[in-house]
Amino acid sequence: xxxxxxxxxxxxxxxxxxxxxxxxxxxxxxxxxxxxxxxxxxxxxxxxxxxxxxxxxxxxxxxxxxxxxxxxxxxxxxxxxxxxxxxxxxxxxxxxxxxxxxxxxxxxxxxxxxxxxxxxxxxxxxxxxxxxxxxxxxxxxxxxxxxxxxxxxxxxxxxxxxxxxxxxxxxxxxxxxxxxxxxxxxxxxxxxxxxxxxxxxxxxxxxxxxxx
Length: 212
Ligand SMILES: C[S@@+](CC[C@H](N)C(=O)[O-])C[C@H]1O[C@@H](n2cnc3c(N)ncnc32)[C@H](O)[C@@H]1O
Known about the structure:
Layout: H1 6-15, H2 21-33, H3 43-56, E1 60-64, H4 70-76, E2 84-89, H5 92-102, E3 111-115, H6 118-121, E4 129-134, H7 141-150, E5 152-161, H8 176-190, E6 194-199, E7 205-210
Helix pairs in contact: 2-4
The chain binds S-adenosylmethionine (SAM).
S-adenosylmethionine (SAM) binds at residues 39-41, 65-68, 70-71, 88-91, 94, 117-118, 135-137.
């Protein structure tokens, strides 16, 4: 869901830096061929994440939820030559499709996919990260956040996607993803050791930094 008026969003996108035409090809393929195409982040969010990555001078990025590879490639395009993005997904079919697109990009070599359940992948992941994008199974977001904070560099940012869940955070819906997101929003808000901002960009992005 978009919380921003479509015309205004288009105007903003038009005036902003965009991901490459190859990212656009991923988007076109996904809209045309994939059932859950709305999961793809899209131009506005990609431009925003790219700006953050550049602003903090990130070199190592971690992503939970690769899908067709759009967000991974758009983030890689904003990393320096020696930058690296580790992206995790448990769907081998979708990861092969993503790899096919990345292979056509000079930035593709920065992307290291891990085919695994997100929780099981945690023990395989080494080192610190400057930027983490959490965009996989909602019920495990809190686990991904805890891991990410434990591995975040001093300048690092964690971005959690879909944190307004099409506005369902304002309802009493008992569905487990809705409950998980609402509880996590409350949990993040209660953490005095974090600097945080929840933004109504696309489906809601919660940005988190450690204060010390
Ligand atoms: C919202 S999509 C990611 C969209 C992607 N970041 C983009 O913008 O193009 C969520 C992805 O998480 C993956 N996923 C769901 N549950 C998972 C789990 N338990 N472990 C790993 N990946 C999972 C799905 O296969 C799906 O590709």
